[in-house]
Amino acid sequence: MTWVISFLGACFMLTVSYAFYNAFLHPLRRYPGPLLWRAFRFPYVISVHKGDIHRRLNTYHNKYGPVVRIAPDELSYSHGAAWKDIYSSRPNHLPLPRNPTWFKKMSPDEPDSIMGYNEQSHARFRRAFANSFSEKNLLEQAPVIESYVDAFMAKLKSMDTVDLNQWLNFLTFDISGDLSFGESFDCIKNGKAHPWVEIAQDFGKGLAFISSINQYPPFHKLLRYIIPKNIMQRTLDHRSMSAEKAQKRLALEIDRPDFVTPAKKFGDQKNAISDKEWEINMSILVFAGSETAASALTGIVRQLVQNLGVMVRLTQELRDAFIVEKDISIASTARLPYLNAVISEGLRLCPPVAIGVPRVVPPGGSTILSQYVPAGTYVAFNQFSAFRQSSNFRSPNSFLPERFLHPEDGDDVSAFQPFGIGRHSCIGVKVAWAVMRVSLARLVWEFHVRLADEGDNWDWGSQDTYIFWVSDGVRWNGACARTDLHIGEETFERDPESGIIKKLDFRGFGYTFPPHRRKRHRYWIRG
Ligand code: HEM
């Protein structure tokens, strides 16, 4: 009995000493943060598990400022200047590599990938895929992307009410499947998620769980025993489906407008990519390219239906610009300033990558925001919290696309980097913009998009995030009805000849144009 008490006493003393050291003697002791988080890693891990880490970080940045110590060895940043310091290459500074805790392989035989932390392999894959994401290749991929938006729109036109979140996922996964695996998942055609997509959508929680265990070496070695059998089986099924799809695509000895053809040519000439490497990289491209874009579009549409003044202005820009739907293309939507501002503002309030992708400070330490940070420290720019700081954006929780047209005092748009910067920044940024622009434009041009339940208003940040947002199907109930517009108190007259010109009253949206402008704001509506 006495030895049990002695043992427990020793454990207690060790824990207290460990916490005391972390909080008051550690090289990061001068950085502010909540006491328990500075002393232990577990509050951070619990928060990641609960899915509320983005809200916690937001609260802490509000309280402690642009740098917060969120674990004994981790700092979170929200000041725009930190982007360059953490993620770009600077003269006389070693680059900060990705944090292996988040990007650890599940098994030693797993090949490296473009998302991995091995910098050499990353550089090799980045070079191989660079051409696949060039402007020239996007031009070739544009008709493929647009054909899926055609199919998406055709399906929506046949329905009265839809769960937009689900259908936007169908759209983006079908596009990514085609551009990576050489074939669509047929989610739009079948009106349901393909098994590959279903499993992939559960990745977030799994990744959050794995990264939490990885924080406590050597327990990560037990990971494979802790993960429930059925989840392990789903992962294996997913891998074999990916392998089959990847091999099928590689066997196609034809040039297709996709991500594979240019990378394959590069690999053949310079540095062959092995079959296993193809498999993992293709899966990453599918997932990175679809979940993010669907999440962004869902967030943007939610902001629009909750801010009808913005919806009106956007609808007007689109209907002024296009008389027929088929003119709405990737190329023609690039020049619409308000559409682009709406997308940026949606990405600010609903960033698909809600928490920062962490880096590790290399040997010798580094300087971030002019302050020394010791080697081994994890550092990250956390997007959700940074984008909602009043030190970066005026009225940070309001949906104001105009801030991207005319940034005013209080808007530091340099803090806004939803695609990251530096050598690991999003390789698919051009594709992402293309998909978001053309699908949002067609959706808003064609439909009166509104909430099925008018009272279903909530802030995007109130959802949980497990690396990706968990868009709760029950709470998100988007409706997309092909109805005539009924705006404010007035309905509209249709021109009997053309059937398209109608009058619009902006009242009822809490957004009133000055009388001299109101005349010019006419709606082009197709019933
Ligand atoms: C709205 C949509 C998207 C957002 C917000 C987004 C965001 C990001 C961010 C923040 C990173 C940086 C990760 C880091 O710093 O470690 C990243 C990397 C990446 N993204 Fe995206 N992304 C989007 C769409 C896409 C698309 C459409 C593709 C491909 C089709 C894609 C493929 C990738 C890949 C492969 C990487 C890793 C790049 C590297 O490490 O070199 N993403 N993305």
UniProtKB/TrEMBL annotation:
Q: Which domain of life is it from?
A: Eukaryota
Q: Which residues bind heme?
A: C426
- InterPro entries under this entry? Cyt_P450, Cyt_P450_CS, Cyt_P450_E_grp-I, Cyt_P450_sf, Cytochrome_P450_monoxygenase
Q: Which SUPFAM superfamilies match?
A: Cytochrome P450
Chain coiled-coil ranges: none
Key words, A-Z? Heme, Iron, Metal-binding, Monooxygenase, Oxidoreductase
Query: What GO molecular functions are on record for this protein?
Result: heme binding; iron ion binding; monooxygenase activity; oxidoreductase activity, acting on paired donors, with incorporation or reduction of molecular oxygen
The cofactors required by this protein are: heme
As for family, the record states:
Belongs to the cytochrome P450 family.
Name by which UniProt lists this protein: Benzoate 4-monooxygenase cytochrome P450
Organism field: Pleomassaria siparia CBS 279.74
The top of its lineage is: Eukaryota, Fungi, Dikarya, Ascomycota, Pezizomycotina
